[in-house]
Amino acid sequence: MSGVEVKVEGLSKSFGRANIWSDVSLTLPPGEVSVLLGPSGTGKSVFLKTLIGLLKPEKGSIVIHDTDLVRCNESRLYDIRKLFGVLFQDGALFGSMNLYDNIAFPLREHTKKSETEIRDIVAEKMDMVGLKGDESKLPGEISGGMRKRAGLARALVLDPEIILFDEPDSGLDPVRTAYLNQLIIDLNAQTDSTFLIVTHDINTAQTVPDNIGMLYRKHLAMFGPREVLLTSEDPVVSQFLNGRRQGPIGMSEEKDTAQAEREMAEIDELSGLPPIKPQIEATKGLPERKAVARRQQRVRDMLHTLPPAAQEAIRRSQQEVADAQPRETVVGAAPYGRPGGEAPTEVLPRVGAPNRFDQPR
């Protein structure tokens, strides 16, 4: 399983006369974790449903594997949908089925695999999300966090190239959210699939994704690598990602212009950008996330176009990460620390120093 690029161009969606968003353009890089943010009611879940073809936009295109989902026929759309796995807000499990049958459902519905093959696949996916041994439990007998993980296991059984998460942290306490965030990173390391997460959780947005996008006032305010968004001086992006009251976003999404200007003046009195929180790393023993190197290269390529304060904050963040790395790393450890025979070893130099952004290009 590996990720695929999703290219969205000029997408617009309305319900009757109510415009949800217009002219949304972004590219989800293959194999990377992206997050879509925005105040409540900005159409983030609508975007997910449009992306998978459940809702049809009025304008624009969604291109996957050279196929435009907006204009293709139903047969081709059905095939493309098999590339997706979806984790819904509440897990969307069948209450009358135990976890095993819930997770096996897509395999029985969409494949001709034998029950023996299905059993092996379900066992593998349940082990990946930490539910081994809970096969016989019903959704009503488990916690909200377990239901989320069961829904995630079901989303994984067809080995999707794209996985969509609709507010996976909704209803979870901070501890369970932290565990779920680590699980998302670990799954990306193992599958290299393309992930898109809709969330309101600021800590998730700051520490999980490779890329961040934000919907605001019926448009996509910004989309790009995490370092760029986390150092952005755009008032909307900065206010949301830092969880501030001061800024253009109010209780009803927008604020009176005069009030917003007064609050922005308060912010202008503060100096410097807040530090960039480090991104969550995959659990020790799992494969290195390929997405990280790809994103860092894009940031290096565009660093000179960013404001000086953002450049300095990104350089400082990268140096802190480099300084925190061990000087030598042994390559070849078996996943989860399980014995895997004699693993080849290779000594690597300390990561970061030769690749700093301020190196001449």
From TrEMBL:
<dbReference type="InterPro" id="IPR017871">
    <property type="entry name" value="ABC_transporter-like_CS"/>
</dbReference>
<dbReference type="InterPro" id="IPR027417">
    <property type="entry name" value="P-loop_NTPase"/>
</dbReference>
<feature type="region of interest" description="Disordered">
    <location>
        <begin position="318"/>
        <end position="361"/>
    </location>
</feature>
<keyword id="KW-0067">ATP-binding</keyword>
<protein>
    <submittedName>
        <fullName>ATP-binding cassette domain-containing protein</fullName>
    </submittedName>
</protein>
<dbReference type="InterPro" id="IPR003439">
    <property type="entry name" value="ABC_transporter-like_ATP-bd"/>
</dbReference>
<dbReference type="GO" id="GO:0005524">
    <property type="term" value="F:ATP binding"/>
</dbReference>
<dbReference type="Pfam" id="PF00005">
    <property type="entry name" value="ABC_tran"/>
</dbReference>
<keyword id="KW-0547">Nucleotide-binding</keyword>
<feature type="domain" description="ABC transporter">
    <location>
        <begin position="6"/>
        <end position="242"/>
    </location>
</feature>
<keyword id="KW-0813">Transport</keyword>
<dbReference type="InterPro" id="IPR003593">
    <property type="entry name" value="AAA+_ATPase"/>
</dbReference>
